[in-house]
Design a protein that fits this description.
Blueprint: H1 3-39, H2 42-63, H3 66-76, H4 80-107, H5 109-116, H6 122-148, H7 152-176, H8 182-206, H9 217-248, H10 251-264, H11 269-286, H12 290-317, H13 319-327, H14 335-351, H15 354-360, H16 364-389, H17 391-417, H18 426-443, H19 452-472, H20 481-491, H21 496-499
Length: about 500
């Protein structure tokens, strides 16, 4: 096996483990939203969503792009002083910045809160979430360092198991005890404080965090500076709709929209699992050849796409049923918004880890420009659509912005580096699977009972059909044998019927 196949195998092996863990954490996060949405009114859930949006934006700005810079530089250093210095450079800079952001937001609370919130408890909720910002930033820097050491187990333990799991348990107990909306903010702050201790205890097992270090302020700042703006703009793409809904419309509309949004977000799970190992491995491959980066990009994108099409079709065909089953009938009006936002998220599956590929190639300024363009379009669409159409307008603006962003990055990779996620063979799957599954899904819609088990059975059946279509159109390539071997090793099954469709080198 050559080194490129070995790196691809590493991504796939890690992705299987991270995928399972991400499924667990995503289920915990979604269940948390469901608990909050059901135990509070749509208006209360909407106010939680606005506070969470402020928290996320503040934390993203406080991280200053170092969550991508740290793993990239740590993966390229061999000397322990350099490795420790890369982590410490990010920690020192982001801690100071995030504390400053929290102070500014607390001082501005008398101005911000009346514009975005309606309840009497809003100020307390806002302040608690703001205090949690620097704690979260310190936590994410620790996770970035673990990622830079290419350690999957510790990342999963902190980010995918403990943090969402403990937070879910705590918020459930507090809300069930009648604490009220403030319980959501306290759950985030308290859980983060404990998770920080756990994260750095695990990081210290990978390398001694105390000791001599060599800071890399100049080169890491040069790399991360464009990401400071691009990451905050990228986060604004996911939060602007919530904030503008809070400003222009009622908290209840914010709540209904934020029932649809996380459900559509399940389409990002598979890509996120692959992406965890993709950036450090692709960065290392870039030092050898752009062709190696392209090849890994092609293979991972194809299988993420095959995996996600059935889930996308399910969200597209049964949006109102799904949102009613999960959040309750009071949120059923968000069904159409769920279908629209799902279309935008699905474009990520179609073009794969495009922004991580740009980062691996050192083109962070392009990420900045593409995010900025999409953000401006998003704001303009929201300004026009939300006052007129409420959360439906926000859904259209969000989906349109995602489509524009992914199209922009695709075009740049295609014409600047000649890199695309498509090959002659994989194009067959990218075309045939949705062409067959989307009409078929709408055709059998009325035959599927409105129950969660039956909708899940529908998704699994379409997933198997997607694999059959991929085989039938002969979209498999030689390196797909790695995925087959991975499944065989984990299940003790022999997939001979698939092997015969894989061409030799």
């Amino acid at each position: 096996m050559n080194s490129e196949q070995g790196d691809l195998g590493k991504i796939l092996s890690s992705a299987v483990f991270v995928f399972i863990a991400t499924m667990v954490s995503s289920a915990a996060k979604l269940l948390e939203r469901v608990v909050i949405g059901r135990l509070l009114t749509p208006g209360g859930y909407g106010e939680f969503s606005v506070a969470l949006a402020v928290f996320t934006l503040g934390a993203t700005l406080g991280a200053a792009g170092y969550t991508q810079g740290i793993p990239r530089f740590m993966a390229r250093f061999d000397d322990l002083e350099d490795v420790r210095g890369a982590w410490l450079t990010g920690l020192l800079f982001t801690t100071g910045l995030s504390v400053l952001i929290a102070i500014v937001l607390i001082l501005a609370a008398p101005i911000i809160v009346p514009q975005l919130f309606e309840s009497n408890e809003a100020t307390t909720l806002f302040v608690i979430f703001v205090i949690a910002i620097p704690v979260y930033v310190v936590y994410t820097i620790g996770v970035a360092a673990i990622r830079g050491q290419e350690n999957t187990m510790y990342k999963v333990l902190t980010s995918n198991v403990f943090y969402p799991g403990f937070r879910l348990a705590l918020v459930s107990v507090l809300l069930a005890s009648g604490v009220g909306i403030v319980a959501t903010g306290f759950s985030y702050l308290f859980t983060l404080s404990i998770t920080v201790v756990l994260t750095y205890a695990l990081l210290n097992r990978l390398f001694p965090i105390r000791g001599a270090f060599r800071l890399h302020t100049r080169e890491m700042t040069t790399f991360s500076a464009p990401l400071i703006v691009s990451t905050i703009v990228g986060t604004l793409l996911t939060r602007t709709d919530t904030l503008m809904l809070g400003y222009f419309r009622s908290s209840a509309e914010v709540g209904i929209y934020n029932a649809a949004y996380p459900l559509a977000g399940v389409l990002t799970i598979a890509g996120g699992a692959v992406g965890y190992m993709y950036l450090p491995v692709a960065s290392r491959l870039d030092s050898d050849s752009h062709n190696s980066v392209e090849h890994v990009y092609e293979i991972t994108t194809k299988w993420v796409f095959v995996l996600l099409v059935p889930l996308f079709v399910t969200l597209l065909v049964f949006p109102d049923r799904i949102i009613s089953i999960v959040f309750g009938s009071q949120y059923a009006a968000g069904g159409s918004a769920l279908a629209i936002v799902a279309i935008g998220f699905f474009t990520n599956a179609a073009v794969g880890r495009n922004k991580e590929t740009l980062s691996a190639l050192g083109e962070t300024s392009v990420i900045l420009v593409s995010n900025a363009v999409a953000f401006v379009v998003n704001v303009l669409l929201n300004l026009f659509l939300i006052p007129r159409y409420g959360f439906m307008g926000a859904a259209v603006a969000s989906a349109g912005s995602y489509i524009l962003l992914n199209a922009t990055v695709y075009v740049f990779l295609r014409y600047r580096f000649g890199i695309t996620p498509f090959t002659r063979r994989s194009r067959r799957a990218f075309i045939a699977i949705p062409v067959v599954l989307v009409p078929l899904g709408f055709g059998v819609r009325q035959l599927v009972p409105v129950t969660l088990p039956m909708i899940m059975l529908f998704t699994v059946s379409f997933a198997l059909l997607a694999v059959v279509i991929a085989l039938a159109v002969r979209s498999l390539e030689p390196d797909d044998i790695l995925l087959v071997e991975l499944v065989e090793n984990h299940t003790n099954m022999r997939l001979g019927f698939i092997r015969k469709y894989i061409p030799e080198q």
